[in-house]
Amino acid sequence: MLRFRSLGSGSGGNATLVEASGLLPFRLLVDCGLGIRQLAVRLAQAGLLPEDLDAVFITHEHGDHIGCAHTLALRYRIPVWMSQGTHSAIGSPDFDGLLHIARDAKAIDLGGLEIMPFTVPHDAREPLQLSCTDGSAKLGILTDLGHATSHVMAHLQTCHALLLESNHDTDLLDQSAYPPFLKRRVGGDYGHLSNTAAAAIASAVTHGGLKHLVAAHLSTQNNRPGLVQDVLSNALGCQPGDIVVAGPASGTPWLQL
User: Fold this and answer.
1) Each residue of 102-144: pLDDT tens digit?
2) What is the pLDDT of residues 26-85, one digit of tens each?
3) How confident is the model at residue 153 (pLDDT cuts 50, 70, 90)?
4) Residue 191: closest CA among 172, 150, 219, 215
5) What is the CATH code for 2-256?
6) Which of 37, 148, 168, 217 is the most buried (most CB within 10 A)?
7) Would you list the domain boundaries of the chain?
8) Sorting pLDDT into bands at 50, 70 and 90, what band is 24?
9) What is the pTM of this model?
């Protein structure tokens, strides 16, 4: 069985728990863009301690994703996977033998869980997003990209759940107080997905086995949960309440596949 839970998603910090159950559960933390104390609080809300984590995967070097990764790894002796570009971008710190280099389209076997990293267009050194499977269910995690390439779309096929960036409403971004350069960055091909872009992705990969669609990384200034739910539900032909929204502080409850 595979289950997952966002611990929080937004510009203030991103972290997602993925748990594969078996004889022994395997717990992966995807990004830890929080302070070490706040991460412990969020884990406790999920019924876990930091030492319950078996591995960490970092998608890219931006602070709201890498957060306390170095401290967490060294303090609790947790292996960490990230791209070579991400490691270089944070200054190539010493992880005391705990660092593993992730590469595009090279599967990582973690025992009860296999993860597949894939490159995405985003303004970072070597960003990777990923899918996770326990052999029977597949979760896709896709945040922080400006647009979906055919390579991205290929990796999202047959997902039973998708945690998908729905960063901004285009009109709200255009009308916002953001300076022009930031509007161009957020809305550009290497920035963040709009609601309509997220809906197009979701519509293209949906199938009868898609059980959960979680909207993530919403902008607090340029988006609204209700807008996201309306756009995504219209694309999938479901009810707005069927779309789960990951809050910046509350994240989501556990979602099971």
Assistant:
1) 999 999 999 889 999 999 999 999 999 999 999 999 999 999 9
2) 999 999 999 999 999 999 999 999 999 999 999 999 999 999 999 999 999 999 999 999
3) very high
4) 219
5) 3.60.15.10
6) 168
7) 2-256
8) confident
9) 0.97
